Amino acid sequence: MTIIAKFALNRGMSHYVLVAYRMAIATAVMAPFAVVLERQSRPKMTFSILLKVMLLSLFDPLLDQNLYYIGMTYTGASFASSMNNILPVLAFAMAWIFGFEKVNIRRLQSQTKILGTIVVVGGVMLMTLIQGRELNLPWTKGRSDHPADQSASATNKQDLMKGSLLIIASCFCWCCFIILQAITLRSYPAQLSLTTLICSSGMVEAVIVGLAFERGNAAVWSVHLDVQLLASLYAGILSGVAYYIMGVVTKEKGPVFLSAFNPLTTIVITILGSFVLAEKIYLGRIIGVVIIFIGLYVVLWGKRRDQLASQSDTGSAARSEQQMSTTTPGQCLGTSNHAAITVSSVVPTDSSVVRTDETV
Fold it and tell me: pTM, whole model, 2 decimals?
């Protein structure tokens, strides 16, 4: 999706228009499934849920996608995808703040998660500040899918820093989205309906923002049978499906688990970006990606240890409950009789006491 979107943006498509069309197609794809499959199970809409939906669509698609596309024009698809590797760390930090993730500084797994977070931040800084020498690959020589001025700006350190900050901001918006999505699913568990509401609300917001920023330039809204239409259709269909899958995974496994698989896209996009878009690859970025991967999997190792410890605690509690429930009535009775015998052995054998007991 990133490669096709970058290809369309290089051909002059406005990112505001791309986001608006993308959400319109996603709404058209997901709405029939929501209407048919969740007709009976859809919860009642309240003002609180409506407000959450509007905030969700504000974070993603409106802010996240527009910031990401703008940043990608400064840096390139492979660099933007590599920067997205900070998503699991940001998601972990925000999940910790909002109570979805537990951290105990005295435990080894919590220490490794914090250490991995620091390593990831170091890798991001290396990618941003140290470019390194260019790797001369045979399929990138003499080819460029970028206009000359855009190619020059991509190698400019000031533009690289600007693009990096925009992509980091988009990552923050995406993390806000998945945390708020996890919160919303607690009160509105209809995932198909929630996906449709997010896409439709995002479409309205994207159209309003697009009309404001592209005022007086009506030509940008025209789409022909070319890569711009392909990008809108492809991104729209995948967006609708992705929002639904994200909701399912977030509800079952949590936001940190969802974000953990994002780095897998870096390798694919870097390879395709080099082949399709003839993007240049630099040594500093490769080293930065490796460091980010190391830090990421240190974080995931710590999270996995947390899950195992939690499962062990749950299993111990379940076994204790089972042992208590399997205690036989005879054993209880025997214990009671023994207690009675013990008590009776110390009771005085005075007849008045016996008569009093009989009277009672």
Answer: 0.73
